[in-house]
Design a protein that fits this description.
Blueprint (H helix, E strand, L loop, with lengths): L2 E6 L3 E7 L5 E7 L2 H4 L3 H12 L3 E6 L10 H15 L4 E3 L5 E2 L9 H13 L1 E7 L4 E7 L9 H6 L3 E2 L14 E4 L2 E4 L8 H7 L20 H9 L6 H4 L3 H27 L3 E5 L3 H10 L3 E4 L5 H14 L1
Parallel strand pairs: 1-4, 4-5, 7-12, 12-13
Antiparallel strand pairs: 1-2, 2-3, 5-6, 7-8, 8-9, 10-11
Length: about 325
């Protein structure tokens, strides 16, 4: 039984093929839905033709894109596009159910991740740092410890809108230390976390998988130039201080994530994190900061993997 799972996000669409041998094939497509909504059907068709699956599962977080007036409109659009391409796909609902009917399918991909982790580890905290957001979700077999909607998870500190690639740096810091002073940064879309982590050596050019704020290159010099703009400067004006500036912003983002983890630990009583996602490196640093036990998972696409196992056990 060849199982294909697709996680349709606002910026990235991810796929995973689970073979009978348990081997997996994974792919990530940078696909900004807010720009290319009318091309989604073409992308899904290409995925179908490439893999020719026997069973298909869909999960999504793209309903939050502001091209949709409501989240329900986004869910309905994604459901209908997938139904037009695949004969009988399953959709993961916010209640953790697999359905072939139109339902509440938005913001449910983390449920598939939790399914996999409960199966493997029984209890813990999922720390999944993606390109845009961070999930900090406690899990315990046969118990529901997480909020279902994005709003509920925000209220429980289980969802933080900060990520490894697409987060504007001026949303992480409002002031930056520079030559003994704290300077207010420009409130403009000048630089993102992909620029920061490219300069710091956490990601390479290929891993900078989103668009740049200015539409220009992804070299380290390009990234430095964008970061310098936070202080309305050219690189040569701030170059001596730039390493300290980057470390400061990184540490502030880690602090944001660590504070969220502490809240989840406090409420759940669980003291071990399982870390995955493109931001695994900063997730490890956040756990170390608060002296929390952790295990790094060598899994690129946990929601799709979890959904594939759900389909094998329940839907297939």
């Amino acid at each position: 039984m060849v199982i294909l799972t697709i996680d349709i996000g606002g910026a990235n669409t991810k796929t995973l093929l689970l073979l009978p041998s348990n081997d997996v094939k994974e792919e990530i497509f940078y696909f900004p839905l807010w720009k290319r909504k009318n091309e989604l059907k073409t992308l899904i068709k290409e995925i179908k033709n490439k893999y020719k699956p026997e069973i298909v599962g869909i999960t999504t977080t793209a309903e939050l894109c502001d091209i949709f007036e409501t989240k329900k409109e986004g869910e309905r659009f994604i459901y209908r596009v997938c139904k037009q391409v695949f004969e009988d796909p399953y959709f993961l609902t916010i209640n953790g159910e697999l359905t072939k009917k139109e339902a509440d399918i938005g913001a449910a991909n983390y449920i598939a991740s939790i399914y996999y982790l409960e199966m493997k580890f029984n209890e813990g905290i999922l720390l999944d740092i993606g390109s845009t957001t961070t999930d900090i979700i406690p899990f315990k077999k046969n118990k529901i410890l997480y909020g279902k909607s994005d709003l509920e998870r925000l209220m429980k500190h289980q969802l933080i809108y900060t990520g490894m690639l697409r987060t504007p740096l001026n949303t992480i810091v409002h002031k930056i230390p520079f030559k003994g002073k704290k300077l207010r940064v420009a409130s403009e879309f000048f630089a993102i976390t992909a620029d920061l982590y490219r300069v710091l050596g956490y990601i390479d050019k290929e891993e900078y998988s989103c668009e740049t704020p200015d539409g220009k290159g992804k070299s380290i010099e390009d990234c430095k130039r964008r970061i310098a703009r936070l202080l309305c400067s050219e690189v040569n004006e701030v170059e001596e201080e730039l390493p300290n500036i980057c470390e400061y912003i990184k540490n502030e983002q880690i602090k944001i994530i660590a504070e969220g983890i502490k809240e989840v630990v406090k409420e759940s009583g669980i003291r071990k994190a399982y870390i995955c996602g493109v931001g695994t490196k900063i997730g490890i640093e956040a756990c170390r900061k608060i002296k929390l036990d952790y295990k790094g998972l060598n899994i690129k696409n946990l929601p799709c993997l979890g959904l594939a196992y759900m389909l094998r056990e329940k839907g297939g």
